[in-house]
């Protein structure tokens, strides 16, 4: 029964009526009601004058209305309540009119203020309506109206008053309570019908408590029992809120229930969860009653982590006596029992089923991270909760057809308390912490993974061209902490791997690689024991697989490897790469086995490759390749060569990039970053990638046939210039080209490689072995040429022009040397000239009928138009002193042309056409080939033959046009200075600035330099001495050979071989010599002051004198080679053997010189047999090839006209028994072979010039610094007949017993030659004095002074060969610096 209502006085009734009118007036604001006449007391300035008088007026009018109502109420009681004829009294009508007037007044006032002055009117009436406000209005409006000063205090007072009135009872009757009351309470609670509303029960229960003297706590217990039995009923929560029990009391009651049962039912925890969410109880109040203690849960979690680590440790140990495996069913049963005994876990499960995420979050923060979610039942509840939350958003981004049906979504138990579902992207961003809390245990329900991935993919697709948002980065966190770790538990699920890649493809590789690094790190393993166990199991499988993979079982093993890689690709590839580093024979089968991977796995493989290649890895990293090889040196223990593991890894990377679609930008960017850090070893990676993907080799072991084919057109180069077929790798080459275009990587790599060449020599030479310096320099040089060739051949002219900076930037801004700069720009210049030539030719009306001379003239105009700006630029870049000897036009002409412009490889074209015809014939003979395929192959061969023939014709026309242009400008190449300049400075400048830098750049450039020297001679170029040029090149090659790397020595040998081929062609046929040399300016022996082009016949070298000079050059080469071989220095010995091997077709040609070279090489072979095996192999190879060509050698008297001296011959030194050559006999000692020394050459000047300064060496340094006596040869290339002098014996290897004896014997051998050189210098100086008697004294004194210095230098050079055996590093640095001084 409800308590009786309190009686009111008549004044209170009137006031209440007025307050009702005021409180309900806002309803009229929503209606478009008709307002009566405006009262007179409402003026237009009513609200403006509120504080000055309007307020008092309003209160007075209200009081009048209240008084009127009061008087009306009094009069109505005194009458007999008789109605009038109308049924309504006149007083009632008056009151109604007054009431209507008052309502209209208040309505007008509130409407005039736009509804904002309601509280102002209420506050004005607060003095006599305050008690009505407290009774009628809610707490929110009480304080606004001013009826209550402190809302909180008033609320507390109201609660206490109600408690005192309705719930307080006497305790003396507790033991005399009647059971009928409890029965009544139970009856009411167990039948909550629609008639029994919450308000009814809230009135009935207190009445029953009072009527039957019931214990309130037991009554609350009964309510909770009924709630537990009916958790889905929405009746009990409002009832408990109405009864207002103490939260502590409720927690104690529930706590007794929890402690009184071994395993409380699930309904009890559901009830607790609902009470927590409706704020009936507090989490801290109930948490203390739950078992077990938090410390017990922490200990159990730590034990799980330790067990997982122990499991991983035992997996790395081979155990013979294996323990009996425990029963998995028993372990699962014990884990399930422990879970059911944990009341905190059951409460969290109930909270998730009812949507109580905030309380779950608080409990997760109290317990170890991921300890709760690792339990399957809790994880499934959380997954269902997340799935329920995202369902509206997922329905908008991904719709399925009705035919497929829709998967039912698990609903929460209390739908009235459901959280707000996620319907847009902002909601998703706010609720992202729920998704992140799942962790890798999302694998229990893969459907949720699919839904999350599709939502992320839709968002990233929409925001593809927009700046990144917070949600963009939060998705990265979801991938890092949820999706990728969850994939590890899904065995062979390639579909979800593709879904993951569809999302990750929207992120750049920097973000992806960071995710992969976190995926495979140890940090995530320490948080999830099950993930650690899973990783150990996968490792066991991949180890078993890698032990059995071979070429015969690639397909089945590849399938198994693919299945394993779907879940944990990073772990799989780390182990695979570690095995490849150890066993390079696994490269081929592993590459074939990787064809079953997903796109995600290929991307992870590229990351693992980069991580394995990166230097400075920590030994405690999670990378298995690093764990197997923690201190991976990138060079061998001696520091002279690159480690085999790095070579294997780079080779594998190149092959995998060619066969499969792997992103190349990270690999190229890694190489660029390493070059910026001055690390050159990783250029091996770029070299392998370019070679495998484009079939453009960087190997120096190229054959002569291939080298000749490289001088042809594009088709000939593609067919015969490389070991592989270039056209067979167009797809992979296009992928590499596109990757190099990203972030200007092509330009960056080219410039960095060009700069790094000199950095290797001058920056790193002190830190690493000299042999490794040479290898790194060769690798950098070869990779630059290889990559530049690939860019120019795979890109169009416009694309290539956009990539390469201007040549002035290369010179001035990037400080790239001339050889590399012109190498990069040469294709652009050639294409620009051809385009301009076509433009000029087509501008003529009769361009189709133009003669060859007219075409050549147009080509010359086009070349001048294109090269003129470059000539002006070069003249301003290099010092002005440079152009005193050569002109900028010659400099640009030399560097802009290629072998394609000077030489037509007719033999290569013929050979290739013949091969294609043979191939077509073999197809025709093949009877098994289908007719359609046969016809297709024959058509292809015929088309290719026609293309080659057309290309040869075009190249021949092009060479003719270039030669015509060279003939026109040849007189402008060399400055017409004095005769002395033509003899020394011009040749020196040509060698320093043009010839030597380019002849060691590439093998085709070496042949180009030899061809260009021959063309300068054949064009009869003025102010250039071919004889001096050859003499400077051949007479002293020690420093040049010593300063070369291994590949440079090979190129330099090819250059010398080409020059020797030309020389020996002139030497072998007098008619050829007379035709090509006899009357040419390059063979003039006297340079006259007038620089007249006409020369007497006596001014040229005749055929026999040229043969003497050729013998002298062979003798000088022999001496230089022997000096290098006896030096004991690795670089000198290796380079000299390489040069000897390259020039073997034309050197040696004389029997005695060949025997001397053979003896010294044999000595090197014997000495290095057990020391340096590479030198031993080189020496052995050369001796075998030399013996095979021994029958081509001739005697000295057949090589040139030999004059025997009647003087006493010098004895030949005894042969060394340990040298491996034939033993010395008594006859050899008593009868030495008399020979004449090679004839020295000299020139005479007919005009006054500067005194003969020592000529510079081939690499740019001064001759006076060289340890050999070649001064006379450098300055006197023409033979002058002298008195017969016996030739010095050819040097032989000294005895191995004494190094001092060796030096003495060597000095004895050199003595006649050196004295002979001094005699030549004296006679040459006398000749110069006679021819320059008209010189001023200053000139003659200067000349005599320098001549005496020259003689002094000659004497110093005869001291010892120890000066020639200086450290190779010092000689390398000095020579490189001198080569680049200009």
From TrEMBL:
This is THO complex subunit 2. PANTHER family: THO COMPLEX SUBUNIT 2, THO2 PROTEIN. Residues 1241-1258 have a biased composition (Polar residues). One of its GO terms (molecular function) is mRNA binding. Component of the THO subcomplex, which is composed of THOC1, THOC2, THOC3, THOC5, THOC6 and THOC7. The THO subcomplex interacts with DDX39B to form the THO-DDX39B complex which multimerizes into a 28-subunit tetrameric assembly. Component of the transcription/export (TREX) complex at least composed of ALYREF/THOC4, DDX39B, SARNP/CIP29, CHTOP and the THO subcomplex; in the complex interacts with THOC1, THOC3, THOC5, THOC7 and DDX39B. TREX seems to have a dynamic structure involving ATP-dependent remodeling. Interacts with POLDIP3 and ZC3H11A. GO terms for biological process: mRNA export from nucleus; mRNA processing. The keyword Transmembrane helix does not apply. Residues 1204-1218, 1301-1331, 1344-1372 have a biased composition (Basic and acidic residues). Residues 134-408, 420-559 form the THO complex subunit 2 N-terminal domain. One of its GO terms (cellular component) is THO complex part of transcription export complex. Residues 561-649 form the THO complex subunitTHOC2 N-terminal domain. InterPro entries: Tho2, THO_THOC2_C, THO_THOC2_N, THOC2_N.
């Amino acid at each position: 029964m409800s308590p009786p209502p309190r009686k009111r006085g008549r004044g209170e009734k009137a006031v209440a009526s007025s307050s009702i009118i005021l409180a309900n007036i806002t309803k009229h604001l929503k209606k478009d009601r008709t307002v009566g006449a405006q009262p007179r007391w409402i003026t237009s300035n009513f609200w403006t004058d509120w504080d000055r008088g309007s307020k008092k007026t309003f209160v007075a009018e209200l009081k009048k209305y209240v008084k009127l109502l009061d008087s009306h109420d009094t009069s109505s009681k005194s009458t007999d309540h008789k109605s009038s004829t109308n049924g309504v009294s006149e007083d009632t009508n008056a009151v109604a009119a007054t009431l209507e007037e008052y309502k209209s007044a208040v309505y007008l006032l509130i409407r005039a203020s736009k509804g904002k002055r309601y509280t102002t009117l209420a506050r004005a009436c607060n003095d006599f309506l305050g008690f009505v406000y407290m009774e009628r209005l809610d707490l929110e409006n009480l304080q606004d109206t001013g009826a209550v000063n402190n809302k909180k205090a008033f609320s507390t007072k109201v609660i206490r008053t109600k408690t005192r009135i309705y719930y307080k009872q006497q305790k003396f009757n507790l033991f005399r309570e009647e059971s009928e009351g409890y029965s009544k309470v139970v009856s009411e609670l167990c039948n909550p019908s629609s008639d029994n509303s919450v308000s009814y029960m809230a009135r009935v229960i207190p009445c029953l408590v009072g009527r039957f003297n019931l214990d309130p706590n037991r009554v609350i217990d009964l309510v909770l029992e009924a709630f537990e039995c009916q958790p889905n009923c929405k009746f009990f929560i409002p009832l408990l809120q109405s009864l207002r029990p103490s939260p502590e009391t409720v927690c104690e009651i529930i706590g007794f229930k929890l402690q009184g049962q071994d395993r409380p039912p699930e309904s009890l925890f559901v009830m607790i969860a609902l009470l927590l969410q409706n704020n009936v109880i507090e989490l801290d109040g109930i948490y203390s009653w739950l078992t077990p203690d938090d410390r017990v849960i922490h200990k159990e979690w730590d034990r799980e982590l330790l067990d997982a680590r122990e499991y991983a440790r035992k997996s790395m140990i081979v155990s013979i006596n294996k323990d009996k495996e425990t029963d998995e069913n028993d372990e699962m049963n014990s884990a399930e029992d422990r879970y059911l005994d944990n009341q905190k876990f059951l409460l969290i499960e109930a909270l998730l089923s009812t949507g109580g995420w905030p309380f779950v979050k608080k409990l997760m923060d109290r317990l170890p991270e991921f300890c709760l979610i690792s339990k399957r039942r809790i994880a499934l509840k959380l997954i269902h909760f997340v799935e329920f939350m995202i369902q509206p958003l997922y329905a908008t981004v991904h719709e399925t057809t009705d035919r497929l049906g829709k998967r039912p979504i698990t609903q929460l138990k209390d739908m009235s308390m459901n959280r707000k579902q996620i319907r847009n992207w902002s909601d998703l961003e706010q609720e992202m912490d729920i998704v992140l809390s799942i962790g890798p245990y999302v694998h229990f329900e893969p459907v949720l993974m699919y839904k999350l991935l599709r939502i992320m993919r839709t968002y990233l697709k929409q925001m593809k061209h927009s700046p990144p948002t917070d949600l963009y980065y939060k998705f990265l966190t979801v991938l890092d902490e949820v999706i990728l770790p969850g994939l590890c538990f899904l065995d062979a699920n390639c579909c979800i791997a593709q879904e993951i890649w569809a999302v990750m493809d929207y992120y750049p590789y920097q973000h992806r690689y960071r995710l992969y690094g976190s995926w495979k790190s140890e940090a995530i393993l320490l948080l999830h024991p099950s993930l650690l166990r899973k990783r150990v199991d996968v490792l066991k499988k991949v180890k078993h697989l890698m032990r059995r993979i071979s070429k015969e079982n690639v397909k089945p093993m590849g399938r198994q490897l693919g299945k394993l890689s779907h879940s944990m690709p990073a772990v799989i590839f780390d182990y695979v790469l570690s095995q490849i580093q150890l066993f390079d024979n696994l490269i081929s089968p592993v590459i074939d086995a990787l064809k079953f991977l997903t796109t995600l796995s290929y991307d992870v493989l590229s990351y693992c490759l980069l991580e394995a290649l990166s230097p400075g890895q920590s030994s405690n990293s999670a990378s298995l390749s690093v764990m197997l090889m923690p201190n991976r040196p990138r060079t061998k223990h001696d520091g002279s060569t690159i480690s085999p593991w790095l070579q294997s890894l780079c080779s594998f990377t190149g092959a995998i990039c060619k066969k499969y679609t792997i992103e190349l930008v990270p690999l190229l960017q890694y190489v660029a970053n390493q070059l910026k850090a001055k690390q050159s070893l990783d250029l091996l990676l770029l070299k392998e990638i370019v070679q495998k993907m484009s079939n453009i080799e960087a190997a120096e072991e190229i054959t002569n046939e291939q080298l000749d084919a490289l001088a042809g057109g594009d088709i000939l180069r593609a067919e015969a210039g490389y070991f592989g077929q270039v056209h067979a790798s167009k797809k992979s080459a296009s992928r590499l080209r596109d990757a190099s275009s990203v972030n200007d990587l092509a330009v960056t790599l080219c410039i960095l490689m060009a700069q790094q060449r000199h950095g290797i020599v001058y920056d790193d030479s002190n830190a690493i072995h000299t042999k490794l310096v040479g290898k790194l320099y060769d690798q950098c040089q070869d990779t630059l040429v290889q990559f530049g060739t690939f860019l120019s051949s795979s890109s169009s002219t416009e694309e290539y022009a956009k990539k390469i900076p201007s040549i002035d930037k290369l010179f001035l801004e990037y400080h790239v040397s001339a050889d590399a700069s012109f190498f990069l720009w040469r294709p652009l210049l050639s294409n620009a000239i051809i385009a301009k030539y076509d433009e000029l030719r087509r501008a003529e009306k009769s361009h189709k009928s133009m003669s060859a001379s007219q075409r050549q003239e147009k080509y010359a105009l086009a070349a001048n138009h294109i090269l003129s700006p470059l000539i002006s630029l070069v003249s301003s870049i290099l010092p002005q002193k440079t152009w005193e000897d050569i002109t900028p036009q010659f400099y640009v002409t030399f560097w802009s042309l290629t072998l394609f412009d000077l030489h037509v490889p007719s033999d290569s074209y013929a050979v290739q056409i013949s091969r294609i015809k043979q191939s077509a014939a073999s197809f025709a003979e093949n009877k098994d080939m289908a007719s359609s395929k046969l016809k297709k192959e024959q058509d292809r061969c015929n088309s290719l033959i026609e293309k080659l023939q057309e290309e040869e014709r075009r190249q021949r026309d092009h060479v003719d046009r270039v030669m015509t242009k060279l003939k026109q400008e040849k007189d402008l190449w060399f400055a017409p200075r004095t005769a002395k300049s033509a003899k020394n400075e011009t040749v020196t400048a040509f060698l320093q600035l043009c010839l030597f830098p380019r002849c060691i750049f590439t093998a085709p450039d070496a042949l180009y330099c030899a061809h260009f020297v021959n063309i300068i001679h054949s064009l009869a170029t003025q102010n250039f001495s071919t004889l001096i040029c050859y003499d400077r090149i051949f007479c002293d090659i020690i420093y040049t050979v010593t300063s070369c790397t291994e590949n440079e020595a090979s190129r330099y040998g090819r250059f010398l071989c080409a020059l020797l081929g030309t020389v020996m062609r002139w030497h072998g046929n007098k008619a050829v010599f007379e035709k090509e040399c006899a009357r040419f300016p390059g063979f003039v022996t006297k340079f006259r002051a007038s620089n007249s082009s006409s020369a007497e016949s006596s001014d040229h070298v005749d055929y026999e004198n040229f043969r003497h000079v050729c013998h002298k050059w062979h003798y000088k080469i022999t001496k230089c080679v022997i000096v290098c071989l006896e030096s004991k220095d690795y670089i000198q010995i290796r380079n000299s053997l390489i040069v000897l091997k390259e020039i073997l077709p034309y050197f040696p040609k004389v029997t005695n010189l060949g025997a001397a070279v053979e003896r010294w090489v044999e000595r090197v072979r014997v000495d290095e047999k057990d020391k340096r095996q590479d030198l031993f192999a080189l020496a052995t190879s050369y001796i075998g090839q030399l013996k095979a060509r021994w029958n081509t050698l001739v005697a000295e008297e057949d090589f040139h006209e030999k004059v025997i001296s009647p003087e006493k011959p010098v004895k030949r030194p005894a042969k060394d028994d340990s040298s491996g050559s034939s033993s010395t006999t008594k006859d050899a000692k008593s009868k030495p072979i008399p020979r004449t020394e090679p004839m020295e050459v000299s020139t005479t000047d007919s005009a006054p010039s500067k005194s003969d300064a020592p000529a510079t060496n081939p690499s740019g340094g001064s001759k006076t610094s060289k340890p050999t006596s070649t001064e006379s040869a450098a300055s006197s290339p023409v033979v002058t007949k002298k008195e017969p002098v016996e030739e010095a014996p050819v040097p032989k290897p000294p005895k191995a017993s004494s190094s001092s004896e060796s030096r003495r014997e060597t000095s004895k051998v050199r003595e006649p030659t050196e004295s002979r050189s001094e005699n030549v210098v004296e006679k040459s100086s006398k000749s110069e004095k006679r021819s320059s008697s008209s010189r001023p004294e200053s000139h003659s004194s200067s000349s005599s002074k320098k001549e005496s210095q020259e003689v002094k230098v000659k004497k110093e050079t005869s001291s010892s060969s120890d000066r020639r055996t200086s450290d190779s590093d010092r000689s390398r640095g000095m020579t490189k610096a001198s080569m680049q001084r200009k």
